[in-house]
Design brief:
heterodimer; A: MetI-like fold; 11 helices; about 80% helix; B: mainly alpha; about 75% helix; disordered C terminus
């Protein structure tokens, strides 16, 4: 009993630590005027947010980059997992070590090294460079999510389907693919989240004039971030929270 | 057929060569040449200069503290989650990922509101008559910011590793007369080691190389190795020196990870 209460208190404390800054962000998005003092409730920052073309552009860029890079990374990652599954021994371990490099290498070095390559090969900075960079650091997460599923699939069911006359592609989509779906989904979500939240790699690979939310916020840090950013984050956070609660409830209903 | 299938691994191999291997070679190239394109060790040896070495040592100190704090906070948490039903615990785990949907810079910046002179904690302390302390610009603030940002990366692998442990193994140990402490040190801890390795990697590497947290919470007083490298590229415009320092940092990370992975014999450490 005491143990249960203690563990409940512990979880609560951790969540207070995790969510205290977020709650402050949300509260201050409703503040009148700038700064750390509470001056009364107002929606001025929400109005300003939707009026600010710069923030809306950045939001748009962030979302497009996250969606496109997550989709491409998921496709490349999944295809590679199929190929990887038939590799053996040394080839496989070299492949996997290469795949681990972006994760071990720190975002700083990944971003810098890609910047150097883009400059050396005369690739102009812009959307394509940001996308390439994001895809590069997202694929490893896809592979790490799909690979365990791939290992679990039973080869003989696939072979049975082929023996019974299915073309390899048909057999793959009917037999193997459904088993991979949870891994693919979690790889996609992970990629999307990582891309959405990335600052360092975008910072080094973006062109002038293109901002994502992160780089826009970073450029505002020196003069003080406008609370309209808080307002935007509040909206994003609340929508994800609602989505999460709804899907969780559905899952529970499904189980009962 | 099998041969065709192997070919599916090829596109990403080409991608990796183009965007992982060649970029790294570029860092090596820039790190080992000077502006005239001649070979030199100067950029790499520059790490030994007092201002760089100091920054590296400070980064090491802060990132190791951050990693230890994260591990100590996450392990009990993951153990508690293991004890709960899968539904409840996966919901809690999701609550750890949720903050990532709020921009990482904003989240870190929000700590300024909490910790700064005249900030929320300051005001609370003042009203309660507790002596006020200003944390902004101190090492503590940086560690706090790092722990705050990277804690989920420790919790998730630990949680995954602990969930994989078969309850029967633990029950068997108990049946054979092991007490709580023995069960923990002989069964749970060794079996969760891949999770520890992966969590430590995912917290240590970003905290060692960050320049954002120190920028936001360091009040421009604290220079980590990440800040120095970033400045060589953005303001000082000395890519050669910046690459040289990155190269040393990179090798440093790879060596420490190799040492860590050596203890993870199954090589499952990267499972996320």
């Amino acid at each position: 009993m005491i143990k249960k209460i203690c563990s409940q208190i512990y979880i609560t404390l951790i969540f207070i630590f995790l969510y205290a800054p977020i709650v402050t962000l949300i509260i201050f998005s409703f503040n009148q005027g700038k700064g750390g003092q509470w001056r009364g409730f107002s929606l001025e920052w929400y109005r300003e947010l939707f009026a600010s073309e710069m923030i809306m552009d950045a939001l748009w860029n962030t979302l497009i980059i996250a969606v496109v890079s997550a989709i491409i990374a998921t496709i490349i990652g999944t295809i590679s997992c199929i190929g990887l599954n038939s590799l053996r021994g040394k080839a496989k371990s070299i492949y996997l070590s290469l795949n681990n490099i972006p994760m071990l290498n720190s975002e700083l070095v990944t971003g810098l090294s890609l910047m150097l390559v883009f400059i050396a090969f005369g690739i102009g900075f812009g959307y394509p460079t940001i996308l390439i960079a994001h895809i590069t650091f997202c694929i490893p997460y896809v592979i790490l999510s799909v690979m365990p599923r791939m290992k679990q699939t039973d080869r003989s069911t696939y072979e049975a389907a082929v023996d019974l006359g299915a073309t390899p592609i048909y057999a793959f989509f009917k037999v193997v693919f459904p088993e991979l779906v949870p891994g693919i989904l979690s790889g996609f979500l992970l990629s999307f989240t990582m891309s959405l939240d990335d600052f360092i790699i975008t910072y080094f690979t973006r062109g002038p004039g293109i901002n994502t939310l992160s780089t826009l916020i970073y450029s505002e840090v020196r003069k003080g971030i406008k609370p309209s950013m808080n307002a935007l984050s509040t909206i994003m956070f609340v929508s994800v929270l609602i989505l999460l609660v709804v899907s969780n409830r559905k899952k529970k209903d499904g189980m009962e | 057929m099998a041969k065709n299938r192997k070919l599916l691994a090829a596109p990403y191999l080409i991608w990796m060569i183009a965007f992982t291997v060649i970029p790294l070679l570029m860092i090596v190239y820039y790190g080992m040449t000077n502006r005239d394109g001649a070979f030199t060790w100067d950029n790499v040896m520059a790490m030994a200069r007092p201002e760089h070495l100091g920054a590296l040592l400070l980064s090491l100190k802060l990132s190791i503290s951050c990693t230890v704090v994260c591990l100590l906070l996450s392990y009990p948490l993951a153990m508690i989650l293991r004890g709960r039903g899968i539904n409840q615990s996966s919901f809690i785990v999701f609550l750890f990922i949720l903050p990532m949907w709020m921009n990482f810079l904003l989240r870190t910046y929000a700590w300024l509101n909490l910790l700064d002179d005249g900030g929320i904690l300051y005001t609370i302390c003042e009203n309660l008559g507790i002596p006020t302390i200003s944390l902004i610009g101190t090492n503590t603030a940086i560690i706090l910011g790092m722990v705050y940002n990277f804690l989920p990366f420790m919790v998730l692998p630990l949680y995954n590793a602990l969930m994989k442990i078969d309850q029967n193994v633990i029950n068997a140990a108990k049946d054979l007369g092991a007490n709580q402490v023995q069960v923990f040190f002989r069964i749970i801890l060794p079996l969760s080691f891949p999770g520890i390795v992966s969590g430590v990697t995912m917290v240590f590497v970003p905290s060692l190389t960050t320049f954002v947290v120190s920028d936001l919470l360091g009040a421009r007083k604290i220079m980590l190795i990440g800040n120095i490298i970033e400045q060589e590229f953005s303001t000082a415009d000395n890519w050669y020196l910046g690459s040289g320092l990155s190269l040393v940092l990179m090798i440093f990370i790879l060596v420490s990870m190799a040492v860590l992975n050596h203890y993870d014999k199954n090589g499952e450490g990267t499972s996320f």
